[in-house]
Amino acid sequence: MSRPEDSREEERDARVPGGRPIFVIQKHDATTLHYDFRLEVDGVLKSWAIPRGPSTDPKERRLAIPIEDHPLDYADFEGIIPEGRYGAGTVMVWDRGAYQNLTRKDGQEVPVAGAIGRGHVSVWLEGEKVRGGYAL
After folding, report:
1. 118: which DSSP letter?
2. How many domains does the chain have?
3. 111 Cβ contact partners less than 8 Å away, ≥ 6 residues apart
4. pTM of the model
5. How far apart are CA 55 and CA 72, in angstroms?
6. Domain range for residue 12?
7. Is residue 111 situated within a structural domain?
8. What average pLDDT does the segment 106-132 reach?
9. What is the pLDDT of residues 31-83, one digit of tens each?
10. Contact indicator for 112, 120 with CB cutoff of 8 Å
11. Per-residue confidence at 11, pLDDT binned at 50, 70, 90?
12. Nearest CA to 75 among 53, 54, 97?
């Protein structure tokens, strides 16, 4: 079932002041415990699995494995994915907030979708637990 674009926009605006794009980190206790990092990009959540979880130390690097895009509504999901379904296990929102694109080339901002497509995106996260500059 699809919803009109404007209702999705209103929903996003209610989640993050100023209508800025969101990020969410979900703790996912599936086959193995990991964290899913998601960025709102062009109406979907671009997603990566982070096996060791996020770090609050900017000097510490973590593996981020690209996974399938998720719908924007998934940013609010907390609960149990039933046995037998892809990703079965418990999901909880670990952190969320707004983000700002920091990706630049020759002094110009590179759109997030293009930066992801080229394999490198830099963002400033403004969450409750995670705050600061990160690169994927």
Report:
1. T
2. 1
3. 101
4. 0.84
5. 24
6. 5-97
7. no
8. 95
9. 899 999 999 999 999 999 999 999 888 788 999 999 999 999 999 999 999 99
10. no
11. very low
12. 97
